[in-house]
Write a structure and sequence with these properties.
The chain has 204 residues and is mainly β. It has helices spanning 17-20, 65-73, 86-91, 102-105, 172-175; strands at residues 24-25, 27-32, 38-43, 46-51, 54-61, 75-79, 110-111, 120-121, 126-136, 148-160, 165-166, 169-170, 179-180, 185-187, 192-194. Strand 14 and strand 15 form a beta hairpin. The longest helix is centred in the middle third of the chain and has 9 residues, at 65-73.
């Protein structure tokens, strides 16, 4: 089959685009707002874009709390979301008010950075400390701005749990990093499973 991606006339029950561009690593982005409230949110539009220097990017559908915080502070962390933290990661995706820290809500520990103020997930097997080098909204073919905000950061510090190092290499079987597939599907490299994003219920 072929279909016009702009018209999006695929004729399927669900849009296949994100299933086709997969697996995608999850950027578990940590930031802190001007009042010192730590924010944590998973982004499936995340990846490395280079290693000399080391740089990563994440894209947000609109100016969510993470983008606002990163714009103000100029820094963020990106923790590895592994299989053993899947439920915590999913819980941190809740649409909580800006004054609520998803770290605590998801039952996680916010660990201070060495080179940035933005915390990362202490329970994660690895985390990147990043400083922002660029924030922009991509243009569409007709020249208008898309609704997405792209954040590019240079990695200035890296945390690694020795528990996932075997013979001097990151043991991916032990790390079991989560990847986002299409729809509500995730993979840990061994199996595929579904998770449904939670909705904020006002429980503080």
């Amino acid at each position: 089959m072929f279909y016009d991606a702009i018209a999006n006339n695929h004729g399927l029950a669900h849009d296949p685009f994100k299933a086709l561009v997969s697996p995608r690593p999850i950027g578990w982005i940590g930031s802190v707002d001007a009042n010192g409230v730590a924010n944590l949110a998973p982004y499936s539009f995340f990846n490395a874009i280079g290693d000399a220097p080391k740089m990563v990017m994440f894209a947000s559908d609109g100016r969510k709390d993470s983008v606002t915080n990163v714009e103000q502070s100029g820094e963020f962390s990106a923790s590895m979301a592994s299989r053993h933290l899947a439920d915590n990661m999913n819980k941190s995706s809740v649409d909580a008010p800006a004054d609520i820290s998803e770290f605590g809500y998801a039952g996680l520990t916010a660990k201070p950075g060495h080179m940035i103020k933005a915390p990362h997930v202490a329970e994660a097997f690895s985390a990147l400390e990043c400083k922002v080098v660029n924030i922009f909204q991509p243009k569409t073919l007709d020249g208008t701005l898309s609704g997405y905000v792209v954040v590019i950061g240079q990695v200035v510090g890296i945390h690694i749990d020795p528990a996932v190092v075997t013979d001097g290499k990151i043991d991916m079987a032990k790390a079991a990093p989560l990847a986002r597939l299409g729809y509500r599907d995730y993979s840990d490299g061994a199996q595929t499973f579904e998770m449904f994003r939670p909705v904020w219920d006002g429980d503080r």
